[in-house]
Design brief:
alpha/beta, 7-stranded mixed β-sheet
Length: 248
């Protein structure tokens, strides 16, 4: 099973939209996929109409191991399931801090999921914490959405510095990509031009588009309500780049 974590230290960069659309793209491509919503806001769960009381509690997650598959819900997308979140996940970091050998417990969960799925997509909260450390330990690839602005680039630099000193192993492959890009803005255009093909950035650029924002009212990934659209095809292209990154 390949694990791709959608993560950024900074919030508001299109992380959840990316996770949802990557999961949809993976499933559409024939990969049995699980989307694990690790963000207590539960936005990814909301997109798939998971009710707040269906979220998985942190203590149950750490104790679940082989039983975790009982907590998974189907979605309306063929080949795509979700492990939903709710506000109780705000305590997950504390549970990980207190748990003995927390990383090994999460690896047991990964082993159980490997029996059922080809791809695991993680939608992560924006933070540096025990949870993010666990994600770095579990993930094969970190998909990092970056808005072409100074603050967003600075957050990426902080993440790179942190990963260099990551103490739990070599860490995942870092795959940043530009997200919510608006070429009408001079700063965005200049940043995109200056860093095109550099600094390990993916070639695919996800634009700021109203069609992506419509996911919140349509409660489905872009490919679910606008198949064949440019936005849907861009997420497919991003999925293909990130999947290739698993093998790099």
């Amino acid at each position: 099973m390949h694990v791709i974590a959608c993560y950024n230290i900074k919030g508001g960069v299109g992380k959840t939209a990316t996770a949802v659309n990557l999961a949809f793209s993976a499933a559409t491509a024939g990969s049995k996929t699980l989307l694990w919503d690790l963000d207590p806001q539960g936005s990814a769960s909301f997109y798939f109409t998971a009710a707040p009381d269906q979220g998985v509690k942190p203590k149950k997650l750490l104790k679940a191991k082989d039983k975790i598959t009982r907590m998974i819900l189907p979605t309306t997308c063929d080949g795509l399931d979700i492990l939903p979140a709710d506000l109780s996940l705000r305590h997950f970091d504390a549970e990980l801090a207190d748990a003995k050998k927390a990383h090994k417990k999460l690896l047991k969960i990964r082993e159980a999921l490997t029996k059922e799925y080809d791809t695991l997509i993680l939608d992560c909260p924006p933070s540096i914490s025990h949870l993010s450390d666990a994600v770095f330990f579990l993930a094969d690839v970190l998909a990092v959405p970056v808005i072409p602005t100074t603050l967003s680039m600075q957050s990426l630099a902080h993440l790179k510095t942190y990963l260099k000193d990551f103490s739990s192993g070599p860490g995942p492959s870092l795959k940043p990509f530009f997200s919510m890009a608006d070429r009408r803005k001079k700063l965005h255009r200049e940043t995109l031009t200056a860093l095109a093909g550099q600094d390990g950035f993916c070639a695919t650029v996800i634009p700021a588009r109203s069609r992506i924002e419509q996911m919140g009212t349509r409660l489905t990934p872009v490919g679910g309500f606008a198949p064949g659209s440019e936005e849907a095809e861009l997420y497919v292209a991003l999925w293909e780049e990130l999947q290739a990154g698993v093998y790099s």
